[in-house]
Amino acid sequence: MKHRILSALALAALTASNVGHATTPTEEPRIQSYSINFEVKAVADRRNRGVSDTYNRPGAEFTLNAAHESGLVGFLQLGTVSKTLFANGNGTSVTGAVGYRSGDPERFHYGLGVAKEWFPSAHAEAPTGVDWETTAVTGVPSFTGMADTRFDTSYLVVELGWGRLEGRYLYVLSRDFRGNNTATLCGSTYLMPALMGGDPTQAIDCYGTGQQQSGGSHLLDLDYKYPLTGQTKLIAHVGYQKVKHFAGLDGWDYRLGVVHTRWGLDFSAELVGAALRNRDFANVADANGNTRRVDSTTVVLGIAKRF
């Protein structure tokens, strides 16, 4: 996931803090104690941690950021995702977070919060194991169990920064990290080819340890923004993930690009990609059996409007 997560919504609290403070002719105007910003963005490929959430297709998102003078910050984002990657869903995701930030933005600053991703209605039912002997004898797949997995994920988030350089650590609190477990990974990557007459070795190895979950995974992000001119800035990102029980998903992601502001719009061009230890997990087949690699390096163009 570039992880754009730290902060979720405390808008009711933020709004309530300013209710009932109308000024009288003898009062001095109050300085606004909070800020709320919105952004609408369209991109050629919506990526999370270097991997496409839209199956290498265009996507869109709406983002709300809120900050209070006390240090309380909030974040809410609605985005599009692929139904191929997030099965049985409605093609949307919701990311929300709430946290606290403090320090000097020009020097040392820090933050702490919790965040969650929701994928409405999305879930995948897949076998937790296969009885290969019975399957070979009868010619009919025989499963030892089934799991119905949701993709919703919760995180603990810690931020540290110095000036334009920001680091972020995320710990996965939920049972799974974006639905990754033995049933979903082995089933989507190795099981179907094996049942269609392919070599079952990889599927047998994948299921060999029994049902495993990916909760407790560790994610790291490092971001840097540098102003090239008054209207153009360089953005750079590198991330690393260590996925519990699934070393094949361990790997790096990267992003390098520029953002140029003109006519009230932000135009961006970024080189984005990921390098997983086992790239088989990045090969995803659609309903027609066509396969796409969702971690390949690509140039992602975007246009955004801030309010």
Keywords:
two-stranded antiparallel sheet, mainly beta, 307 residues, Porin, 12-stranded antiparallel barrel, 4 helices, 11% helix
The strand count comes to 18
The class by helix and strand makeup works out as: mainly beta
CATH hierarchy: architecture: Beta Barrel
| Major sheet summary line | 12 strands, antiparallel, barrel
Distance between the termini: 25 Å
Number of contiguous helices: 4
Care to describe what's here?
Helices cover 11% and strands 49% of the residues. It contains 4 helices and 18 strands. It has helices spanning 11-16, 132-138, 182-195, 201-207; strands at residues 34-43, 47-48, 51-52, 59-68, 72-80, 92-103, 108-118, 123-130, 143-150, 153-162, 165-172, 218-227, 232-242, 251-262, 265-276, 283-285, 291-293, 298-306. The protein has a 12-stranded antiparallel β-barrel. A two-stranded antiparallel sheet has the order 2-3. Strands 8-9 form a two-stranded antiparallel ribbon. The longest helix is centred in the middle third of the chain and has 14 residues, at 182-195. The radius of gyration is 22 Å and the shape is elongated.
